[in-house]
UniProtKB/TrEMBL annotation:
Pfam families: DUF6252 (PF19765). InterPro entries: DUF6252. This is Uncharacterized protein. Keywords: Signal. It comes from the Bacteria. Residues 1-21 form the signal peptide. It comes from Flavobacterium macacae.
Amino acid sequence: MKKILSLLVLVLAFSSCEDDATFNNPSVQGTKDGAFWRATSSSAVVVGNTLTITAVTPFEILTLKTSSVEPGVYTLGEDNSNAASYTFSADGINSEYATGAGLGDGEIVVEISPVGTVTGTFEFNAPGAGGAVLNYINGVFYHVPIQAAQ
């Protein structure tokens, strides 16, 4: 009887477990100025040979731009063909940071992805108004869908 009761308890314990996995596919996230940051939505667009990835939250827009859609490492801060920008706008407060020709540094790494998506990593330091610098490290974009150019 004890064996049956023990078996019944085990069956009930395992049957009440629920698989509550959450998947972030697609996802754009990273560490922004020392704090974890994740976009609520993201998309990518290819115009000509330029890839632009946009990640947004209710008050923020992160944009990553590369001069090619090919897998590779794209250096930021040398010119405007590869760039990263970040905009915050809420309650009358607006902040903008961007890399560009001679501004900021970092890199965007585009990896091979399934057709119709883009995956890779990023990190950058982008200057803003008043000498402030925004820092992103450990940035990842994963299976971001490539939209048709409009």
